[in-house]
From TrEMBL:
Residues 28-189 form the Nephrocystin 3-like N-terminal domain. Keywords: Repeat. It comes from Ramalina farinacea. This is NACHT domain-containing protein. Coiled coil: none annotated.
Length: 1258
């Protein structure tokens, strides 16, 4: 169940609450309900589902009765599920917490439902930050078949009136499927709002009302038990009992407090006086208790009591005894026994449960202290929240706090302070100078980073988003208050700091959330440096470390909404995008489907086949992807690229829509010939089932309609209906089961452009709303509309000039793009604007991520991933009890729409650093080549491809004075660089063209360029051949051709012989002359036996764990990916991919000492690398001085390891990580380590130079 706890983010609070009430319940009490005729009739009813509403006034013992029924049902062997709402705990009164807890309890007793939740966990779904409506839909509505049973499901809900929204809860429960025999027991106060909601319950779930006032029969038993220890003779004890019972008026809470008052007395006369003075009703009783505390407590004890009551009343959640002691410690140090103290000075207003949590005796006590009391213990909420906020700040600003975190010793109250200071800030008016001063000092000190570290350690990063909202709201309130204050007296700079932190907190969660969870102290070491230079966290903390990040072109100065930009290929255009589970896929014009990991943005697979792929779809889990082509449908496994099924078809139509059925057992295809084809995926012998969607002659000619083929098709979420748009006919919906025309879309009279226009408009693009059953689409006049096929109602939306649309998985967001390339996200169904992106490049398709927090768009050759602040806030603001939620469960966002602008820059396609690392030469996909300095400034615009073709290869000469480069068209040039002295200043160098040629197209694309040490010779290498050209004469002087068409090679300068080359293959190295390319000797690699079991003990492991095999390497056994002379000048590093059976591949790393190649040898052996090291290795980079092997690990950390060490685990040293938004396949291939130990990383058409402590190792 541990995975389900993570999925649902649940704790054991409900079990604790049940134990709390069960422990306090007196024996024999509450049993009256079992013989109550109303309850008995409800229990014996034969109806499938029904509701029992037990209602009673405050303090009437309702929660005790709930605990009795739960214990009774359990004793009878019946499964029951329960939840206790508590207004004093923001988490426990949250609707989402209730739904997640209920789901967890159901999974404990329902194996089928448990398996359903485990499937959600496997595809990466998490519910901690989901809104109530989405949580209900995913956990219960979509799982109704998994919950269907013949045995009634008993659900007890106590304290419904104390929840954030009783209306929302009852609306959700009343919509439960009739397939589920639900016996619902709701316990609450008899409010008119709850009564009105019960009146609206469907007939399939009738409501029976039962008053909890019958608990008055239990009061004598309760009083008898409580006063057993009362001293005095029996007649006097009986007299006391009778007086309390007669004055109780059915209120258990009153009885409890009255008996405690009596038990505190020492003499019979004192008891008689108490009984005479004790008032009836809760308000007079509380007033008397407060008066008694004033009379009986010393001034110091009164102050302590007031402090304890204030903390318990106004805290965001119940505090533990040790937390409460720490909270009051500054004013009341050295409390000997707080448990004892509470019992003696707090007048029975506080109680302590078995988990040492301190709470008020009842909700009415909070109402009295904060609203009704006029005495010395009255709590002024605004002042109380100010004091609690300041105490939280004091706790977090403790100078010793960070060091204690390092020792795993988190002081009491630190967690509460980290989670709750923003709650107290939001609960206070903005006029307090004490709050503003403390907040400013906190945010401008390292304590702010310590706070973030605490939240990361406790997996509570969503608190950063809540805090962002609190800071913004506080700053806005303060500006309103200061409107009448002279400008020179306003705290303008301080409020700007709050605004900047509000932005940074959300961005930190989006960009670095996973890294913070994995290693919380990265907030100190690295994250400030990766933040933009104008961000407040970088300005305050990013310049205090030897670790630095600098960008070319002046980029990374401010936050933007772009998370990543992925390149689909130089000669390809992106056509459509699909997202599901933990992956997203793009279909391109190059007849490929590229699949990326949605978390890391790393390419997982690249699928291609001989037939043209016309359409694709992904299963709900994201585990399978289907590709439709002329003549076949192929089903692949997304993780491995393995083909699972090949399904042939003979129709020559084009697929307009394709989907897996809801349970994944069928594939559905909608074609442009007007036919829907379905086929079972479970039966290998199954055939295609065809449904022709043909309108009758009368229907086809309706109001000017003409018979035409479909132009857009969309399947409903459950696969039972299909929406079909025609070019010359109205949008229509058919039922697939009965093949019946359900409805045609009529445009309302008010929405028609002309009064005499026909009653329909053809649609170009349609999709189904995932929840409401509506169809959303774009008319041919580019107007977006919504249409309910069952209600026969349609409405134009205030969104015009639309070209593409997408709905979020929960149906609460609508994204549209226009002809100018702008993208807009709006709320659904009110269409309030949330985010607007302005971009000049047109959009081909849009899609939301499964968690609703990202938007993908495809433009030309790019897939852009956007993560706007507004989306992060929207879906992370499901705070327990958040006032950001409306009664319907939809987040109410600010009316202000955030806007962004995007510059779609051309990505870097080739990169090479000078040998000394002072200059970096980069080429982009438009054929532009620039020479950059280490600081990122453009030193020289080197070259521009005449045909704007991507630059594919760049290489430097060993003396750093020549650069050779080529584009994909085969144009090759060499330029000489002339520097003025040793300066690297911009403008103090020139470049001169010294060589230009064009490669032979018959040789294939150039894969490598190499200059000799004197830069007099240039090697051009393709897959099957190589040539050496003279730079001076511009002629080809030698040529080599491969004898093995499937072999791949890389060429490097011989490390010991300046006039020779090494041609590196997968199994051997060939020593060749520079002038002639003639082989002079062959060196075989002494490799481990490929058939040896991986578990066999060896010390010369060089293989990495196997990976999914690329589909582009069917006929190749091995590919040499990289061969370089390392920066230490002492090693040759070779990386090879070997292809195995079962479409798997194995990446092999070999590091040779250069001395292996000096002399007459026939074999060379790579250095041994331990298995733990290879298991963590993602990208080998280089070997630096002192045998320092540098690489990126699987978590994108730059690491170093000493060659020759046998420790492949603890011997690895991590230096820094790369943000996830920086990384994709192209980025990883171009990451370059320079001799100084700095790392060059391409990003968004520019480069980042990262300096760390790596150089200090030698």
């Amino acid at each position: 169940m541990e995975n389900l706890k993570i999925l649902l983010a649940v704790s054991e609070v409900s079990e604790d609450d049940l134990s709390f009430y069960s422990d306090r319940r007196m024996p024999e009490t509450c049993s009256w309900i079992l013989s109550n005729p109303i309850y008995h009739a409800w229990m014996e009813s034969l109806l499938n589902s029904q509701t029992l509403w037990i209602n009673g006034s405050a303090g009437s013992g309702k929660s005790m009765l709930t605990s009795f029924l739960i214990d009774h049902y359990r004793h009878q062997g019946l499964s029951c599920y329960y939840y206790f709402f508590r207004s004093g705990d923001r988490i426990q009164r949250c609707i989402n917490t209730f739904l997640r807890t209920l789901a967890f309890q159901l999974a404990q007793n329902n194996l089928i439902y448990k398996q359903y939740l485990e499937e959600l966990f496997e595809i990466g779904v998490r519910f901690e930050k989901s809104d109530a409506k989405s949580t209900w839909q995913r956990l219960f509505a979509s799982a109704s078949t998994r919950l269907a049973t013949m045995i009634p499901i008993f659900i007890f809900i106590d304290g419904l009136d104390e929840s954030d929204s009783p209306q929302t809860i009852l609306n959700l429960l009343s919509s439960a499927s009739t397939n589920i025999p639900l016996r619902l027991v709701v316990v609450s106060r008899p409010t008119s709002a709850i009564a009105a909601n019960f009146d609206k319950f469907p007939r399939t779930m009738p409501v029976t009302r039962l008053s909890a006032e019958s608990t008055k029969h239990d009061i004598p038993l309760f009083v008898e038990q409580e006063l057993q220890s009362l001293h005095g003779d029996e007649p006097f004890r009986r007299q006391v009992i009778e007086q309390i019972i007669n004055a109780a008026s059915g209120n258990f809470l009153w009885v409890h407090l009255a008996t405690q008052e009596v038990l505190d007395c020492q003499t019979q006369e004192e008891i008689e006086q108490v009984l005479q003075e004790i008032p009836t009703g809760m308000l007079p009783l509380y007033e008397q208790m407060e008066d008694a505390m004033v009379r009986n407590l010393r001034p110091a004890d009164q102050r302590l009591s007031k402090a304890l009551l204030t903390w318990v009343t106004c805290s965001q959640r119940p505090l533990l005894l040790e937390e409460l002691s720490k909270a009051v410690e500054p004013d009341f140090p050295h409390i000997i026994d707080l448990n004892y103290t509470i019992g003696h000075i707090c007048g029975h207003l506080l109680v302590i449960d078995r988990k040492s949590r301190v709470t008020l005796v009842h909700q009415t006590a909070r109402e009295y202290l904060t609203k009704l009391s006029t005495g010395p213990f009255a709590i002024k909420s605004s002042k109380a929240h100010e004091d609690l906020f300041l105490r939280c700040m004091s706790c977090l600003c403790d100078q010793k706090l960070r060091s204690r975190l390092g020792h795993g010793n988190l002081p009491p109250l630190s967690s509460y302070a980290a989670w709750s200071w923003s709650f107290h800030l939001q609960s206070h008016a903005a006029g307090s100078e004490r709050i503003l001063t403390a907040l400013s000092a906190f945010l401008q000190s390292p304590s702010a980073l310590t706070w973030i570290q605490i939240l990361a350690m406790q997996d509570q990063l969503r608190t950063l988003v809540h805090s962002s909202r609190s800071l913004s709201a506080f700053a806005d309130r303060r500006r309103v208050l200061d409107a009448s204050v002279a400008p020179n007296l306003r705290p303008i700079q301080t409020l700007e700091v709050l605004d900047l932190w509000a932005v940074d907190l959300v961005k930190i969660v989006g960009r670095f959330g996973q890294k913070l969870l994995d290693m919380p102290d990265t907030i100190f070491k690295f994250i400030p440096q990766f933040c933009p230079q104008e961000s407040i966290i970088h300005r305050q903390f990013g310049r205090r470390s030897a670790f630095t990040v600098s960008f070319s072109g002046g980029s990374n100065t401010a936050w933007d909404d772009s998370l990543a930009k992925l390149f689909v290929g130089a000669n390809a255009q992106a056509l459509t995008i699909k997202c599901a589970g933990n992956c997203f896929a793009v279909l391109t014009t190059a007849n490929k489907i590229i699949i990326w990991d949605s978390i890391t943005c790393i390419k997982q697979q690249e699928l291609s086949q001989q037939e043209n792929i016309l359409a694709m779809c992904i299963s709900t889990s994201g585990k399978r992807i289907a590709a439709f082509a002329q003549g076949s449908v192929r089903i692949y496994e997304t993780s491995s690229g393995k083909q699972l099924q090949l399904i042939t078809h003979t129709n020559g139509s084009r697929s307009l829509a394709m989907a897996f059925s809801h349970d994944g057992s069928e594939i559905l295809v909608g074609s442009d010939d007007g036919t829907i084809r379905t086929r079972s995926l479970d039966d290998p012998d199954a055939r295609w089932h065809e449904v022709e969607l043909r309108m009758s002659e009368h229907e086809a000619t309706f109001a000017g309609a003409t018979t035409s083929n479909p132009c857009s098709i969309a399947f409903s979420p459950d696969g039972s209906q299909v929406a079909v748009a025609f070019r010359g006919a109205p949008l229509s919906v058919w039922g697939l089961g009965d093949q019946r025309l359900v409805s045609r879309c009529r445009r309302s009279q008010a929405d028609r452009r002309f009064a005499s226009a026909r009653p329909w408009t053809a649609a170009n693009n349609v999709l189904w709303h995932p929840q409401s059953g509506e169809v959303i689409g774009i008319y041919q006049d580019a107007t977006v509309f919504r249409w309910d096929p069952l209600e026969h109602s349609s409405h134009d939306l205030p969104l015009n000039n639309a070209t593409a649309i997408a709905l979020s998985p929960d149906g609460e967001l609508l994204a549209t793009s226009d002809a100018n390339g702008a993208v807009r996200i709006s709320r659904f169904p009110d269409f309030g604007p949330i985010w607007l992106l302005r971009c000049d490049y047109p959009v081909a398709d849009l899609a939301f991520s499964p968690d609703n927090k990202r938007l993908y768009d495809i433009r030309g050759s790019f897939c852009n991933i956007w993560e706007p602040n507004s989306l992060v806030r929207l879906f992370d603001l499901e705070a327990p009890g958040s006032e950001a939620r409306s009664e319907s469960g939809i987040t109410m966002m600010s009316a202000t729409m955030s806007e962004a602008e995007a510059d779609i820059s051309e990505p870097i396609f080739a990169l090479a650093a000078a040998p000394d690392g002072d200059y970096i030469c980069v080429g982009n996909t438009e054929g532009a080549v620039r020479l950059l300095t280490r600081s990122g400034e453009v030193a020289v615009d080197m070259w521009q491809s005449s045909n704007f073709m991507p630059v594919e290869q760049i290489t430097w000469s060993m003396d750093g004075c020549h650069i050779a480069l080529c584009d994909i068209g085969g144009t090759v040039i060499v330029k000489r660089i002339e520097r003025v002295g040793s300066s690297t200043a911009v403008g103090e160098m020139s470049v001169k063209l010294v060589f230009e040629a064009t490669s032979n197209p018959d040789d294939g694309p150039l894969e490598q360029l190499l200059l000799n040490q004197q830069a007099s010779l240039l090697l051009l290498s393709s897959a099957a051949s190589a040539q050496v050209w003279s730079i001076e004469s511009g002629s080809c002087i030698s040529r080599w051709e491969s004898k093995d068409a499937n072999a791949t090679n890389k060429w490097i300068q011989h490390p010991c012989q300046p006039d020779q080359l090494l041609r590196i293959g997968a199994e051997k190295a060939y020593q060749c002359g520079w002038q002639s390319l003639v082989e002079r000797s062959v060196l075989s690699f002494n490799l481990p036996d490929p058939h040896e079991q991986p578990s066999a003990p060896r010390t010369d492991r060089i293989r990495k764990p196997s990976l999914p095999r690329s589909m582009s390497s069917e006929d190749t056994n091995a590919v040499v990916d990289k061969a370089i002379l390392t920066h230490d000048g002492a090693h040759i590093m070779v990386e090879v991919t070997r292809f195995l059976e079962g479409r798997r591949s194995e990446r092999q790393l070999m590091i040779f000492s250069k001395t292996e190649f000096d002399g007459n040898r026939s074999f060379v052996s790579p250095r041994p690398l331990p298995l733990p090291l290879l298991g963590k290795l993602q990208l080998p980079l280089d070997v630096l001085p002192k045998n320092t092997f540098v690489f990126l690990d699987n978590d994108n950390w730059l690491c170093s390891w000493h060659l020759g060490s046998t420790d492949g685990t603890t011997g690895i040293e991590r230096h820094f990580f790369l943000p996830r938004g920086w990384l994709n396949a192209e980025c990883l291939e171009l990451c370059t380590m320079v001799a100084s130990g700095d790392l060059i990383v391409p990003k968004d058409g520019e480069i980042a130079m990262i300096t760390s402590d790596l150089a200090f190792q030698w």
